[in-house]
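We include the pair:
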Amino acid sequence: MAIGKGQTYSCGDSSGFAPDSLFIPSAEPVSENYRDGTDWEPKSLQSKAILIWQKSERRSIILENSQDLFYLGRIFRSDHSMFARFQKHFLPSCPSTYLLALSSIFLLLSCGKPTENTLEKKPLILEYAQGFEIFRGEDFWEIHVTQGYTGAEKTYRYLVLEEDSRAERNGFDAIVQLPIAKVVMTSTTQIPHLDLLGQTDLLAGFPNTDLISSPAARTRIDSKKVNDLGSGPSANPEMVIDLRPDWIMISTLGEDLRYLDLLTQAGIPALINGEYVEQNPLGRAEWIKFTGILLGKYEESVTVFNEIEKAYQDAEKLAASIPSEKKPKVLSGVMYQDIWYAPGAESWGARILENAGGAYLFADQAGTGSLQLNYEFVLDRGMEADFWIGSADFPNLKTMGTSEPRYQAFQAWQNGQVFTYTAKKGATGGLEYFELGYVRPDLILKDLIKILHPDLLPDYEMYFYQKLN
C-alpha cells in the first residue's frame, strides 16, 4: 500500500492495516532520503502517525510512534537513533521554521503515548469455559483465545475498542472497533448468539444459508439481506472481502482457518471461535460472552448465560439423587462403513447424558471426540440397552432397520425405544439441534431427563428429541 501526496494514515483507520505492518514500496533507507531538507514538509498529524511528503522526489515516508520506537524507511528506530539521523541528514540544511515544526512533532509523539491508566486491565472470571480469557480496561477489552481448535499451541489475542478508545493497538491478531454494523458468521452454532443478544439484524453473510434454522435469521435471508458466501466447507474469502464486514467469526471445524492470514491482510478482523473444544456443556454455552464482547453487548451476554446456567443446574438437580441401580442403560451412536461411532466418555454429549441420570454403556471408553468401535463389541455391550439415543436422523424405525439390518438385533430397536434429535427443523431443512444445542444445553438435558425419567418432568415437552415410530 503506497501512500501518495495529500494522503494521510493514522492508527486504526478504516483500511484496517496496522501501521507497524505497513509496506511502503517507495521508501528507501533514511540516509538516501534526506538529500535536500528544503524539499521536505510536514503533511499531517493524526493520532500518533505522521506523513511527510518529499516534493522533488515525489515520495513519502511515515514516522510513527510504536511504544518506544519510531518507524522510518521500513525500520523501527529508537528516539535517540531517529534524532541522530535527523541531525546528520536533515537539520544542517533545514530552515528554522522547519526545525520548529519538527521539534513540535517529536514532542507530540513522545507525549502522545497512552498513560498508564489507559493500559490497565483486569481479568474477568469465566465459570466453565477454558478456551478463552477476557480482560476489561477503561475503554477496551482483550480476548485471548487459548484453545481455538484441538491441539492449538498458539494463543490468539484480540483487542476490542470502545468509541474514542486510547488503548495501545500493537501486538494483537485482530482489532475490533465498536460499534458494529455488520458481521459474518461461519457456523450455525454462532447464529443463536445473535438471536439471544438481539443482534440478528447485524448478520450480513453466511456460507450455505440453507443450513440456518433461526426464524429471525431466515427472515433476513428471505429478504436478501444476508449474502450466501458459498456452499463449500468454508466461506468464500473473496466474497467476504467484498462484503467488508466489521468482523468475521471463524469456526475451526470447517476450512475457514486457512484463510485467516488472507482476511487479516485485507483488513478484516477474523476471530476464532473454539467453542466446540469445550467438553463441559455450560463451557460451550459460555462462549456467548465471547460474542457479546465483540458486539458491545457483554452485560447482556452475562444475563443470557446466567439464565441458561440456572436452567441447566435446576434440571441437573432433578436427576442428581437417582441411585445407580435405577439408571437405565443407554446406547448411543450409529454405524458407518462397518465402524460404530459414539461419543467418548469425556465428551460433551456423554456428560449431558450422565447429568440426565443415564448409565452410558461406553462410559469406560476414554475420549472427548467420537469413539470408533467394531460392531461385535457394541452388540455385546448394548444388545440389552434400555434406550438408544442419538441414532442419526432416520425418520422412522423401519427406515433405520432397512438401512442397516444389524440394528435390528438391539433390544432398544425392537422395543421402539430409539430417540433422535430431529424434532425441530428449519424452513430449508437445517436441524435446530446442531444450531441451538451448543448454547442451550439446558434444553438437551431436559429432553434426556424426559426420555429416561419422565416422572421427573411430567409437564415438559421435548424440544430437540423425538421417538422414532
